[in-house]
Specification:
This protein is an alpha+beta fold. It has helices at 3-16, 61-73, 86-102, and strands at residues 23-29, 39-44, 49-55. It is globular, with a radius of gyration of 13 Å. The model has no long low-confidence stretch (mean pLDDT 93). The structure holds zinc ion.
Length: 113
Amino acid sequence: MSPADLRKRVRYWKNQLNLRAWTIRLVVIPCKDLPDNHAQVDYRADHDRATIRIRENEPNSEYWLVHELLHLVLAGLRPDHEGYNLLEEMAINRIARALCKAHKISCPPESEL
Ligand SMILES: [Zn+2]
């Protein structure tokens, strides 16, 4: 999906997930700049601002967009967003998979999650 198309999907999912108050910047970056993840989000929950980075040519880019947006839905539970939380990741992957399957959006194999 092109960066322009992905930005349209940001608008769509912001509405679907009731994240309209958030200012969300989407950045598509070379794989070498994000070697360990498909995508990543930084946010300031107290300012409703976030930057989502997605690797270019990512085959499941919309899935990862939904995944990162779900972190914002849950931001109130973990406003500092410090460190990696395995249970949070597992829950988000389950919800993202269900949402994407319902929208006929391709998902990565469960073995990659
Ligand atoms: Zn995540």
